[in-house]
Amino acid sequence: MTEETLTETLPPVRRRSTPDPAGVDFDPVLAGLMAKSPVTRVESPDGEGRAWLVTRMDDVRTVTDDPRFSRAAAMDRQVTGPAPHSAPTRDAVGLLDPPDHTRLRRSVAPAFTAHGVERVRESSRRMLDELVGDLLRGGPPADLTRAVLSPFPIAVICELMGVPPADRHGVHAWTRLILSSPHGADAREQAGEEMGAYFAELIDARVESTGEDVASLLGAAVGRREITLREAVGLAVLLQTGGEAVTHLGGQMFYVLLTRPELAERLRREPGIRPRAVDELLRWIPHHNAVGLSRTALEDVEVGGVRMRAGDAVHVSYLAANRDPDVFPDPESIDFSRSPNPHVAFGSGPHRCPGGRLARLESELLLDALLDRVPGLRLAVPADQVPFRKGASVRGPEALPVTW
User: Fold this and answer.
1) pTM of the complete model
2) Per-residue pLDDT reduced to its tens digit, 148-159
3) Is-contact 232 93, C-beta < 8 A?
C-alpha cells in the first residue's frame, strides 16, 4: 500500500506489537492502539510495508466474513506479514479463498465435527489419566508442561490425524522447529519439508482407506481426485502443528489458575461451570504474539468509519476483539459467569480454526484431571520466575514448575 492509494488524510503509522509481553500480560502496544482507534494504520515489525489493523469485534467479523477481503490476493503484494519469521507458501490453505478453501476443508470436516471429536474422547481421557498417574508417582516438584501439558495434546492430535504411536516423537520434534523462531529459518524450512514428506507418504498409503482419521480422510479425497496430494499434505501439516498449540494454551490456562488460586478453588467446588470457564479463559488468554495473516481489499470498502482502498492490506486482531468492551462488559476481568460469550479465540469466518471443538475437549479434560486428582497443585516457584517462550508466534510457558 502506498500513500497515494488514499485520497483521505491517513492516520499516523504506529508500531503494532510488543515483542514478548511478560507472562500473560496483554500486549500494551495493542491496548494503546485499541484505545486510540478501532481501525489503525500499522507498520510491519521490520518497518517495511503498511497495513490496516482492525480491533473491534463488529469490524473484525466484517473483514473476516466479507468476500471483498481476500487472503489469496495477499501473496501477490508486498504487504506486512504476521511475524518476522513467518513465510506462508502460496498453496497453504490459510491463503486460499472460497471455493478452493471450502473444497479443501470439506475433505477433513468429518474429523472435526462433534461426532469426530467425540470419537477420540475416551482414548484421550485414558492417555491423560496415564500421564497424571505418572506425574503423581514421580512426586513433586515437577514440570507440568513436560509431564502433562506437552505430551497430552501431541497424543490427541496424532490420534485424530492417524499418526502411528511410533512416529509421534518425530512429528512433535518437527512441530517444535516449525513453530519456534530461535532455531532459524533454515531449520524451520527443513522441518517443514521433512514433515511434508512424512505426511505425503502416510496419505498416499491411505488413498483407499475408509478410516475416520484425518490422514485417511485426506487419502480418500486424493483418491477421489477431489484434492491434490500437495494440497492434502499442506493441510495435514497445518492441522498437526496447530493441534499442538493446545500445549501453550494449557500452559497459560494453568498459569492463570495457579496464580489466581481463588479461580481454581471455585472450579473445584463447582465442576459444572468448567465448560463455561474454558470459554472465558479462551477469551481472556493472550494466545499469540503479533497478528495473523493479512487480507487484501479487492475493492474500496468502508470499515469502522475508515475507507480502505482496493489493494490495501488489512489485519484483524482476535485478541483485541475478545477485549471489546461493547461486547464483553469489564473485559479485563475473568468472569466464569459470563454469558453469552461470543469470543473469537478460534477466529471467525471461513478461516475459523477447525480444531476449536478439539481444543475445548482437551481443555475440559485437563481441568477435570488436574483439579480433581491433584487438589494441592500449586506453583513451585514465584510467578515471575516461570519461564515463558521468547521469539515465538504462539505464547505460553516454556516450563511450569509445580508442586502439591
Assistant:
1) 0.90
2) 999 999 999 999
3) no
